[in-house]
Fold this protein.
Amino acid sequence: MPFEIVTIPCLADNYAYLLHDPETAETALVDAPEAGPIGKVLARRGWKLDHILITHHHPDHVDAVEELRKATGARVWGAACDAHRLPPLDEALREGDGVVIGSQSGRVIDVPGHTLGHIAFHFPESRAVFTADSLMALGCGRLFEGTAEQMWNSLSKLAALPPETLVCSGHEYTEANARFALTVEPESPALQARAEEVLAKRARGQPTVPSRLSEELATNPFLRADEPAVRACLGMEDAPAAAVFAEIRRRKDTF
Ligand code: ZN
Ligand code: FE
């Protein structure tokens, strides 16, 4: 049985996620931007927090780890290679490692680019991947530490997951991402339709995440660097995909 997944808005534009296994009642949190909103959802649902999964070391993803650990006794999981700059880990993870939450086993995917130690968590039985600031709805994270090549490689791993996978990302940046995406592929009907949907959701104050990997593959310019349509729009027909990705990322940085 898939996890029950709850999206929790935190801080100005962050998202945390609670995963609840209906079979064992075990509950995990992905990222801990702020204890208040997360504690409220746990209390309202009557869930006890057992695990905290950390995607990367940025304060807006880890600031509430210690408070929640103290309050709940949850075990903390994060990337082994970033252990020196993460809260103390109970479980240090490497690519391919299993993350067992209740009756389900997830898998760790290294997704360097935004930071060097950024990881994603894929839970195939729940058809969900937790990507934080790597793959985002209609976007991807800024390259603070890694190279464009590294991020392109990371996004390519995520793009290879089953298309029905839910992409649970870390921020509500989708409206600005949609405006930018339309400058890359202005004539794409799929993108135009999605941009409209995003604007309507935001106007109603609704989150635009999670999204489906299939819609990201169809509309997210950062995943589409290898598509002839995108290459043509940028005049980069013969460039390597990573170079096309780098150009899209460069344009977004100054958009
Ligand atoms: Zn970040
Ligand atoms: Fe972030």
About this structure: Residues 18 and 29 are 5 Å apart (CA to CA). The longest strand covers residues 4-10. The chain has one domain: 4-253.
